[in-house]
Fold this protein.
Amino acid sequence: MLIDTHCHLDFDRFDEDREAVIERALEAGLSHIIIPAVDLDRIPAMLELADRYPENILTAVGVHPNSTANLPDDYLYQLEEFAEHPSVVAIGEIGLDYYWDKVAPEVQHKTFAEQIELAFELALPIIIHNREAGTDVVKLLKQSSLVEVEKPGVFHSFLDSEEMAWQVIEMGYFLGFTGPITYKKNEWLRDIAKNMPLDRILVETDAPFLAPQFKRGKRNEPAYVANIADYIAELRGISTEIFQNVLTENTGCCFGREEIYGG
């Protein structure tokens, strides 16, 4: 059993064949797909999709750093209302993004900090987006109420240094690995995946983005998370079955949902 812990299945690139994509994921052995929000406007449709597939789709609600400009004054109240939906397992994806430079850093910082505190108040983990902003992400996390939480969330699509990986693991976070771990040039990322504690690893696709090497350049989809899991299992020298069991336990532990454990 596998879980794609980060997949934008609500994006329009899946509009023409979303049902078939979900069916392929189930055939590949997935029990659940977690869909994180990127902005307020998309959340209602995302939750509606979860209502259509209540046995297989879980969600996270939050505002991506590149969507944090010009938020309504009541955006936190809206997120809190959305978080009451039974599919919601986290606040996310939230964080900082200095690569695209779409939103001023001070705006990103404020919104990230506010959403972190909302997660703490709601007793939900967070799904963290970090692109070229690791130092500031960690600084804000250390200043937040989540320092009191044993397993506060996951660093989605981890692509930072091994030093950063150890730092965030020591803070209680999980690391989510995506398709780039299979890219030929990314030996440094494979070294991180080999060296991290097994009980802090999650797998994800970030579909429709970041397809693994065998589909690189094409649309990614949740079924391909099996390829990522198999790849890391081989790196670690353990059986696919054992690693999948570890991943299931890790995911249930991170997101605190019994239905993940039970499949």
